[in-house]
Write a structure and sequence with these properties.
InterPro entries: MetI-like (IPR000515), MetI-like_sf (IPR035906), UgpAE/MalFG_permease (IPR050809). Belongs to the binding-protein-dependent transport system permease family. This is sn-glycerol-3-phosphate transport system permease protein UgpA. It comes from Azospirillum oleiclasticum. The complex is composed of two ATP-binding proteins (UgpC), two transmembrane proteins (UgpA and UgpE) and a solute-binding protein (UgpB). The protein is mostly helical. It has one domain: MetI-like fold (Orthogonal Bundle). About 70% of the residues lie in helices and about 0% in strands. It has 13 helices and 2 strands, in the order αββαααααααααααα. Helix 1 packs across helix 13 and helix 12 runs antiparallel to helix 13. The two termini are about 30 Å apart. The relative contact order is 0.13. The model has no long low-confidence stretch (mean pLDDT about 85).
């Protein structure tokens, strides 16, 4: 006969949840509500007067060629950052998991970049690849590469992708390494005894068992590429040259903070939030089916 366990204090759980609920309400639900409300109005730059325009801001945004261009830039940028960050982190985690001596040192050095602020990470890569004083830019020119991300849009995109992926590799590395250490060694040893080579063992045993971690990191990296890379883009390229690196979140900043078009900026933020929620839902609906939970 099973005995039902009840928590004696019915008030304490709500008190423990209250700080998190308050923070979420103040910093997420209230700004989201204000953005939705403001997207239905057209305001003057100083916020002194407003007029209700309904969905006119959304229609103007979705028919704006500049916004569609930013959408294409965001898709390319997000896919590139997610793939590069996940692939590099998985490779580093697999190599670190094989290290016997000095394992703690390797882990510490690989985790450090995550503590760097996005704007600082952007400035580090900007100094390294600056056409005027960058060390790596000098080496590229010595090798015959015409390197100038200030004028070449493709080079600017490559630079911000590398900087954003480098910033996220440490986070991915922590989870991949934890996932690798959770895999029973007996499975890998049994496969090795049966004659499976390193690649066969990785793709048939290790990688499928890492699918829950990989799925979680796919969602996190998607959200990161859409939102948390603003500081890197702002520090490295400022959305240029010629809007080649102007992602959706950076266009929200430009239209709202720089150009003071508050209605259009709010509509863009609502659309961006809907896109991220939709992508996350699609990932949970279709990608999670391929996830193997042991």
């Amino acid at each position: 006969m099973q005995r039902r366990v009840t928590f004696p204090n019915r008030v304490l759980p709500y008190l423990l949840l209250a700080p998190q609920i308050a923070i979420t309400s103040v910093f997420f639900f209230w700004p989201a509500f204000q953005a939705v409300k403001q997207s239905l109005y057209r305001e003057d730059p100083f916020g002194l007067s407003s007029a209700f325009v309904g969905l006119e801001n959304f229609r103007a945004v979705l028919t704006d060629p500049n916004y569609l261009h930013s959408l294409r830039v965001t898709v390319v940028f997000s896919l590139s950052v997610a793939v590069a960050a996940l692939a590099a982190a998985l490779l580093l985690a697999v190599m670190t998991d094989r290290v016997v001596k000095g394992r703690g040192v390797y882990r510490t050095l690989l985790i450090w970049p995550y503590a760097v602020a996005p704007a600082v990470a952007g400035m580090l890569w900007l100094f390294l690849f600056s056409p005027a004083m960058g060390t790596l830019a000098f080496l590229l020119r010595r090798a015959g590469v015409a390197w100038d991300p200030l004028l070449d849009g493709d080079q600017a995109m490559l630079l911000v992708v590398v900087a954003a992926a480098w910033k996220q590799v440490s986070y991915n590395f922590i989870f991949f390494l934890a996932g690798l250490q959770a895999i029973p060694r007996s499975l890998i040893e049994a496969a090795a005894i049966d004659g499976a080579g390193p690649w066969r063992r990785f793709w048939s045993i290790i990688f499928p068992l890492l699918s829950p971690v990989s799925f979680y990191l796919l969602v996190v990296n998607t959200v990161y590429a859409f939102f948390d890379t603003f500081g890197i883009i702002h520090a490295v390229t400022g959305g240029g040259p010629a809007k080649a690196t102007e992602t959706l979140v950076y266009k929200v900043f430009n239209d709202g903070y720089v150009n003071l078009d508050l209605g259009s900026s709010s509509a863009q933020s609502v659309i961006l939030m809907a896109i991220v929620i939709g992508l996350t839902a699609v990932q949970f609906r279709y990608v999670e089916k391929k996830v193997h939970y042991a």
